[in-house]
C-alpha cells in the first residue's frame, strides 16, 4: 500500500522507482510528459 511520504509511506517493493509512489506497475500513464509511470517499455 502506498501512502504520502511523511505519513507512514513505504515504497512498494518491485516498483521501477521505489522512491516515488506515483511510479509503478498499475499506475496510469500520462502521455507526453517524459515519465514512464506504469513501468512498461
Write the layout of secondary structure elements.
Blueprint: no helix or strand
Question: Residue share in helices?
Answer: under 10%
From the N-terminal CA to the C-terminal CA, the straight-line distance is 24 Å
Label the overall shape.
globular
| Strand composition percent | under 5%
Largest sheet: none
Low-confidence stretches: none
Query: Which assembly state applies to the chains in this document?
Result: single chain
| CA gyration radius, whole angstroms | 10 Å
What is the number of beta strands?
0
* Structural class category: little secondary structure
Number of helices: 0
Mean pLDDT: 74
Description:
By secondary structure, this protein is mostly loops. Helices cover 0% and strands 0% of the residues. The chain has no helix or strand. The N and C termini lie far apart (24 Å). The mean pLDDT is 74.
Amino acid at each position: 500500500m502506498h501512502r504520502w511520504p511523511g505519513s507512514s509511506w513505504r515504497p512498494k517493493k518491485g516498483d521501477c522507482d521505489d522512491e516515488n509512489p506515483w511510479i509503478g506497475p498499475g499506475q496510469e500513464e500520462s502521455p507526453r510528459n517524459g515519465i514512464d509511470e506504469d513501468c512498461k517499455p
